[in-house]
Amino acid sequence: VSTQPASPGSHQPPPLPAGEAEPVVREGLKHINEGCVFIYCQVGEKPYWKDPNNDFRKHLKVTAVPTLLKYGTPQKLVESECLQANLVEMLFSED
Length: 95
Description:
29% of the residues lie in helices and 11% in strands. By secondary structure, the protein is of the alpha+beta class. It has one domain: Glutaredoxin (3-Layer(aba) Sandwich), CATH 3.40.30. It has a two-stranded parallel ribbon. A two-stranded antiparallel sheet has the order 3-4. Helix 1 (21-28) packs parallel to helix 4 (85-93). It is globular.
């Protein structure tokens, strides 16, 4: 999952769109295949994220946040797709 970082001084992860995607993703993790690894990362402060040459855009082809992607495949969910439990479950359960 790629997200923007929390506000400076905050000890909480940033809310995903309207705070809705995080619970959907957490529930979807119940369907993750055995042996899979889930990585949560932040894409950096806004100036870094907006740079078209940042590593997330350049190497992982992340175009928006939040993004769920299956590394090494073209499979990914972007923005509001991360709010759809059936899509999240499908992404996590497919080989």
